[in-house]
Design brief:
130 residues; Rossmann fold; five-stranded parallel β-sheet
């Protein structure tokens, strides 16, 4: 990092589909973000505490611990309660959208309805890093 350069924002990608996680990682790194990954809910909680990311991209349907339970634990743990969380899901379920908002997620994005540019723009908007 050069003098006067802001540190890179760190994003934890929590996605059980390894191919999709790689697509997210590659694009986010091109955009100047540092990334770390977890592929199930249990690992997501460990990584969130260890890495202290600025934002978590959190898939809803995850092995071991689902995304809503991970979100609940994150938001009720002092060390992680202020981390921004964007929920990702294949399900366009209005109840899930409302639930994620009530639980403290910054947004809920439906995978089939957003392109990666939309995701990057939302991340920048949430982190205010334009």
């Amino acid at each position: 990092m050069e003098v006067g350069e802001a540190p890179k924002k760190k994003i934890l990608i929590v996605e059980d589909d390894a191919g999709l996680a790689q697509v997210y990682r590659d694009r986010l790194e091109i955009e100047g973000f540092e990334t770390v990954e977890a592929h199930n809910g249990e690992d997501a909680l460990v990584m969130a505490t260890k890495e202290r990311p600025d934002l978590i991209l959190l898939d809803v349907m995850m092995p071991k611990i689902n995304g809503f339970d991970v979100l609940d634990i994150l938001k009720n743990t002092p060390e992680t309660m202020n981390i921004h969380v964007l929920m990702l899901s294949a399900l366009a379920d209005e109840d899930n959208i409302i639930k994620s908002e009530r639980m403290g997620a910054d947004d809920y994005m439906i995978k089939s309805q957003v392109v990666i540019d939309d995701m990057v723009n939302k991340i920048r908007e949430v982190l205010e890093t334009f």
